[in-house]
Amino acid sequence: MSSQKWFITGASGGLGLALTEAVLAAGHRVIAAVRRVDALRALKQKHPDLLEVEALDVTDREQVQAVVARHADVDVVVNNAGGAVIGAMEEMSEAEIAQQFALNLLAPIQLTRAFLPALRARKHGVLIYISSMGGRACFPSGSMYHAAKFGLEGFAESVSQEIAEFGIKTIIIEPGSIKTDFVANIRWTQELADYQVGVVGQLRQQIKAVGDDQASGDPVKMAEAIYAISQMPQPPLRTVLGGDAYAVLEAGYAQSLANLKAQKALAESVMLAGKAGFNPQ
Question: Which CATH number does the domain housing residue 251 bear?
Answer without folding.
Answer: 3.40.50.720
